[in-house]
Design a protein that fits this description.
6 strands, six-stranded parallel sheet
Length: 178
Amino acid sequence: MSVKQGLAYAGIGARATPPEVRRLMTRIAERLGQLGYTLRTGGADGADQAFLEGALKADTPVELYLPARRHKGHTQERYGNKVRVSSSIPDAAFELARAQHPAWDRLSDFVRRLHARNAQILMGKNLDDPVRFVIAWTKDGKVVGGTGMSIRIARAQGIPVVNLFDDGALEEIARLLR
């Protein structure tokens, strides 16, 4: 399987993503991997894990951005060469996240790291390689929580977002792949 340069997407969503949506995410990630897309995700439970499972099934590259070393047991040693695990977050990622958060000064350092790593998922390790699109799921399709923060950053950067909660989401993904 060959990976096409510049074909990365973000697979994100709520930790409480319903099981049937997580199964769909896994199938989507597997298919996108077969098409040569690289997954970028954050390694959280729920949606991130579902996307990661699909990408690993497809044996496609994954960029896994973590808020801290060894977060949730994710290590480079665990995955080998197919998954690039990074917990180094540049200052610019914090600034990108700060610009989209209404109460940044009230957040703990760890929550700030979570949001900053979301910026990296969307914009790449050094914030100079944006994903082609985002596939997400949020409860009731609302832009809330950490996933909502990622959606706000993506929209501010002009990155298309497909929310699997919405009717027509699969058709929208197909349109983005053309």
